[in-house]
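Ticket #4471: structure export looks truncated?
Reporter: QA, pipeline team
Priority: medium

Steps to reproduce: submit the single chain below to the structure queue and open the exported record.
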Amino acid sequence: MSRGPDAGTLLERALLRHAAVAQIDLSIVSAAWTRWASATFVGARHDLLLTAAPSPALDNWIADLPEADFTLRRHLVAELTVESRTRVGDRIEVRIGVLTVEDR
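Actual output as written to the record:
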């Protein structure tokens, strides 16, 4: 029996939807995650590389990203940090780190 998509897949879908609402054509270049646990929580640390065309909308989206609310089934976004932002040709690459925890 399938439990559905994992936290990484849910996070990627949520980021793409969030960007689309802001009218940003976002692409996910790479995404990886590793299991994470504390004394009271279980979850994952995610490392994603995103790319989009430069624009004022993208600048605002990146600035607001750490405070954004994401709805993930059975998971919560506990922390999101913008690790780097780099211009590569005619694109902006943004590396983000995200901590998700299971919501049981």
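Status: closed, not a bug. The export was complete when the record was re-opened. Leaving a note from the reviewer for reference: Helices lie at 7-21, 56-64.
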